Amino acid sequence: MKKKLLLLFVVCFVFANAQTNYERFNIDLLGHITPNLVDTGIDGRRYSGCWGWYQQNKNKEYVISGTSNGTYFIDVTVPGSPSVCAFVQGKSGCTWREMKTYGHYCYIVSDDAFPNTFQIVDMHYLPDSVHIIHNGTTYFEKAHTIWIDKDKMYIGGIYFNDAGTAGSFAPMAVFSLANPEAPQLLRTLDQDISTNLVDYVHDMYVRNDTIYASCGWKGLCVFRLEANTHAFTPLGSYINYLSGGYNHSSYLTQNGKYLMFCDESPAGLPMHWVNVENFWNIQPVATFTLHEKTTLHNPYIIGNSFAVVSCYQDGLYIYNISNPNHVGVVGYFDTYPQGGAFSENDYGGNDYRGNWGAYPYLPSGIIIAQDMQNGVFILDATQAFNVTDVGINEFEVESLKFRVYPNPTNEILTIEFLTFNKEVEVKITDVFGNSLKNSTLKTQNSQIDVSHLSSGIYFIKVGNAVKKFVKE
């Protein structure tokens, strides 16, 4: 029997229509919600993976937020007023929770310790409620990641359940969703590929049964799921590459020519951009390093033009990738002011805090970014997406590279630019966006008198780059 879950009451904090404490470039904050107020994961982690869902018959948009105590379904149709519609309780104290959708079904996995469960949720009653179709170990007990391509569900790092005990493990498995409420196991990767070659699939991007598998320390491997036999056939690999580490996750351009992937460990590795037109001869195109200590997590590609990348303590970054040989940053939003490149605390001794994941595919064009400590951010990246040619906007992109000091300050604020001989408009605003001071400066070390300002938090804007300072 289906179980019906009605949300009676959820305590959460909603913050919208202000930009307090978040440095940004070409991205604005529309709304912010923190439905899970209990720190139950390690390192104070309350949030993990997120996804989005569009309810076409009601023209509504939702964020599906994985948290340490379960999964929240949040209506973001009005971005400035996000509201929790439903909650599905999961294993408590979780660090990992990921989900994907197929039709009006949501499939949720967790990779935290036994005992655990796999969950299937029917969403078509939203925004009123959701129905729990399955919450158990019949299909498997726990897994690290999930991807859905057409009517097939791919599960990475999967543990099956044997009579209520920790069961057998497979690097990856594929299920049929011909009956969305009763997945059918088709094959496990180790039935065809030796575990000496691939012993773990951390994550995967799948298109038309071609699997780009991030295999941790074994690198990137490409497989095809055969239509008739459902066997896995190796197509190629990309291993022992420069600046390589633990291959974490990847995403493919719409034209299928280029793949972007992130290596998560050790910290501070670059993002990789490779040509995958020939699977047996995958070629590097470029690597990108945001900041010396930036640790990357998950990439998402929009068409052939933009990449949205979750960068842990440095928040969410958007790249223009329309010219594969000239890729550049066109926007960022720092979801984690507690640490990172823009924080006075630097990286705070922990590389794996901050922005876990994002979802940039809702019809409205808003972007969802989920921070492990700070919750769900609803963002408008229109300005970033309007940067159609990185070459024309090089100064606009590079203008984010300035700093202000001393911070906090009593009287004089120094703005230190890179070496540009250009005039720029500098604007100081309060936390509500009210303009308090406008100046035209040369891009060299300049000073601004802020002694007339009251004590509090302010923002200084150069072009579309914004930094925070405190007036004592």
Strand and helix map with partners:
Blueprint: E1 3-6, E2 13-16, E3 24-25, E4 28-34, E5 47-55, E6 60-67, E7 70-75, E8 83-89, E9 97-102, E10 105-110, E11 118-122, E12 129-136, E13 145-149, E14 152-162, E15 165-176, E16 184-188, E17 203-207, E18 210-214, E19 220-225, E20 232-238, E21 247-252, E22 258-263, E23 271-275, E24 283-288, E25 298-302, E26 306-310, E27 316-320, E28 328-333, E29 355-359, E30 367-371, E31 375-380, H1 382-385, H2 394-398, E32 403-405, E33 412-416, E34 423-430, E35 435-442, E36 446-449, E37 456-462, E38 465-471
Antiparallel strand pairs: 1-12, 2-4, 3-28, 3-38, 4-31, 5-6, 6-7, 7-8, 9-10, 10-11, 11-12, 13-14, 14-15, 15-16, 17-18, 18-19, 19-20, 21-22, 22-23, 23-24, 25-26, 26-27, 27-28, 29-30, 30-31, 32-33, 33-36, 34-35, 34-37, 37-38
